[in-house]
Amino acid sequence: MNNRNRSLAILRYQNYDRMPVVHFGYWGDTIAKWGNEGHIEKGLDKEWGDGNEVDTYISDKLGFDFNWYNTFSPHLGLLPSFEREVLEEKPDGTRIVLNWDGVIVVEKEGVSSISSEIDHTLKDRASWEEKYLPKLRFSKDRINFDRLNSLPQVEERDRPLGLHAGSYYGHFRNYAGVVGSSYMAADDEELYVEIIDTIADMQYMATRSVLETGVKFDFGHFWEDICFKNGPLVNPDLFREVVGPHYKKMTDLFLEYDIDIVSLDCDGMIDALIPTWIENGVNTMFPMEVGTWRASIKPWREKYGKTIRGVGGMDKVVFSRDYKSVDEEVERLKPLVEIGGYIPCPDHRIAPDAKWENVQYYCSKMRKVFG
Predict the structure, then answer these.
(1) What pLDDT score does 371 carry?
(2) Is residue 90 located within the same domain as residue 39?
(3) Structural domain containing residue 107
(4) In whole angstroms, what separates CA 320 from the centre of its chain?
(5) Is pTM, for the whole model, over 0.90?
(6) Inter-CA distances, 93 with 105, 115, 148, Å
(7) Helix axes 356-370, 323-338, angle to 10 degrees
(8) Distance between CA atoms of 99 and 177, rounded to whole angstroms?
(9) In the prediction, which pLDDT does 19 show?
């Protein structure tokens, strides 16, 4: 049984031989730090990408089986994107930049976290129709057919391969901002719905075009990132009404192509949005951030039964501590694994405070406990 087969067996509540040890990638700064410490070659942070050869090399060195986030994606955003433009450069090196989403952000030298947003091009119907709508039309140019046709066939895969199907609200939130999208829902609901429908329809057509080529995928995947530590950044009732049907349309399409596992990547406290996802065919939560709110598959399983699966939920902060903390975290995961349909995985990219030896120890411990 290879890692592809055992992973799918777990998520389908079938028998499997052992638990795969998986991760969700790293910050570039983490890879750079490990290079400077001599654990790996320097400069790999510039070459790393989810699932590529460098990713596999680092996984092997640490003891992971593979990076869960192994997907093919058509171009699901703005095409063409906005041209990045430095609008102002300040004496301290801080730059005011128009980014590829048409958002004006503050960039600071040496800071790799998400940039602060100070303004947005998408504000109203005029800016939508002139600046964004033409960039969100479907065309076959959105699909890299050369890469698609080079993907390993099912019998050649040693890990699951997902098809990234898009983001119905997360992209909109990126374009208009949390405040802008929230005000639009109240001030111009017709435009709000039109934007979501346009994004969703384009992404559906791109996904269908990929599937129609005959390339087989093991799971479907969405990205949203529309929650924070206290709950969603969108009204859950409006989300269910406006966005829910688009998930159903896409998950029905997946079922036409025998894809029964559909995962969704959303950070933060997602509990208030889970009903919409479950009702509309999204059945696997990822990466299940533990955070201060202690996210876990257990209460969701108690509420939704075996309909819900999970990948993630391992508190990656223990990588910055010691072996004892790692031991305690693995012990915490044991009863969660026992309920089935769940694969532990660090609950986001491994951060720069992670100690190489702690991550190695975690991989070794996971094999001993779940192998």
Answers:
(1) 85
(2) no
(3) 83-120
(4) 23
(5) yes
(6) 14, 14, 41
(7) 40
(8) 13
(9) 98
In what helix (H) or strand (E) does residue 219 lie, and over which residues does it extend?
Answer: strand 219-223
Between CA 69 and CA 56 the distance in angstroms is 12
Residues 34 and 88 grouped into a single domain: no
Burial environment of residue 245 by CB neighbours within 10 A (0 to 12, 13 to 18, 19 or more): middle
Task: Mention every residue, 6+ apart, whose C-beta is less than 8 A from residue 70.
Answer: 50, 51, 159, 160, 161, 162
| CA dist., res. 293 & res. 291, Å (int) | 5
Is residue 270 within 8 Å of residue 252, measured between CB atoms? no
Q: Answer whether residue 112 shows pLDDT above 80.
A: no
User: Domain holding 12: CATH number?
Assistant: 3.20.20.210
Q: Encoding tokens for residue 363?
A: 């991989």
Q: Is 135 helix (H, G, I), strand (E, B) or coil?
A: helix
- Distance (Å, rounded) from C-alpha 217 to C-alpha 73? 11
Same domain, 90 and 164: no
Coil, helix or strand at residue 266:
coil
Residue 101 sits in the same domain as residue 243? no
Residues with Cβ within 8 Å of residue 202, at least 6 apart in sequence: 76, 136, 137, 138
Cα separation of 144 and 215, whole Å?
13
Omega prior to 134 cis, within 30 of 0: no
User: What is the residue type of 363?
Assistant: C
Q: Which two tokens stand for residue 259?
A: 């894809």
Q: Are 25 and 350 in contact (CB under 8 A)?
A: yes
Do 92 and 199 lie in one domain? The reply is no
Rounded Cα–Cα distance for residues 252 and 61 (Å) = 40
| The pLDDT value given to residue 270 | 98
Spatial distance between the Cα atoms of 14 and 340, rounded to a whole number of angstroms: 9
Specify burial of residue 130 (Cβ count, 10 A radius: 0-12, 13-18, 19+).
exposed
Q: Can you say whether residue 93 is alpha, beta or left, with left for phi > 0 and alpha for psi between -120 and 50 degrees?
A: left
Number of structural domains (the chain) is 2
Percent of the chain with pLDDT over 90: 97
Mean pLDDT for the stretch of residues 266-295: 97
The DSSP bridge pattern shows strands 284-286 and 227-228 to be unpaired
Whole-angstrom Cα distance, residue 196 to residue 317?
35
